[in-house]
Every structure is written in structure tokens, then in C-alpha cells.
Give the backbone structure.
Amino acid sequence: MKQVYVNSLDIPTLQRFAVGFDRMFDELARTAGSLNATNYPPYNIIRRGETEYAIEVAVAGFEEKELDVEVVNNELVISGNKAIEADGEYLYQGIAGRNFNRTFALFENVEVKGAQVKNGILTVTLEHIIPESAKPKKIAITFQK
């Protein structure tokens, strides 16, 4: 059996077969353009059931006033601005405590339900709210004589 690997996504070809998906392709292009170049701080994305998600970000050492979570134009922006305080001169500094700005693209109808810090991990809870117009609905059939 021959395996085929796809190395790139040919969006113009896909658009010939996918009617009405142009907004999704635009969103994918926007997301790909806003990928973060850094791996700091480390994070996890967790799926909890059909409509719930959580993003965990390692924020050990940051105080409440140094963290910010906001939604701007369908993007979740988590930032940390660390106040530099040292009780002496660092001979070695292996614990990262630098400023960061981490952005996550949110799909349409995804809402932030809350954020909390526990044991140095910031957890942002998200939920995909399915609007009534997107839910399945029965169509009544009428018979004529």
C-alpha cells in the first residue's frame, strides 16, 4: 500500500469544490500569519467534551497584576509583563521570567468562560456555543391530494 503525504495545502484547488468555505480559508490564512515565533511560555490546549476547551499557560512567578487575558477580534491574547526585581546580582539565571504575549485564534462562536491561576498554571476555559441556526432541525413535510 502506497502512502501519500501532503506537504502543502492548495487552497485555490480546494475552493473549486468547497462552496461557501471562503471565510474558513481566510481564517486559516490569518491564523497561519499570526503564529508565534517563540515557545515561551509553554502551554497546553485541552479538549474537554464536545464543546469545551481549556488553554493552560505556565505563568509561575507572575503576580496577578502582571497578567492580562483579553479577546480582541476573535483572538485570545494572554500577556505577562514581569516587573524585574532582584535582591542581588544574578550569577546564573535559569528561571525564565520575561515578558510575553501569546495569541490564539478563536473560531467563530467560541467564548471565553473564565480564567484562573492555580499552582503556577493559568487556565483559560473556552466554550463553543452552537447557535440555534446551526443546530439540526426537523422540516415538516406536507402532502397534497
Observations:
- Helices lie at 11-15, 22-33.
- The longest strand covers residues 110-118.
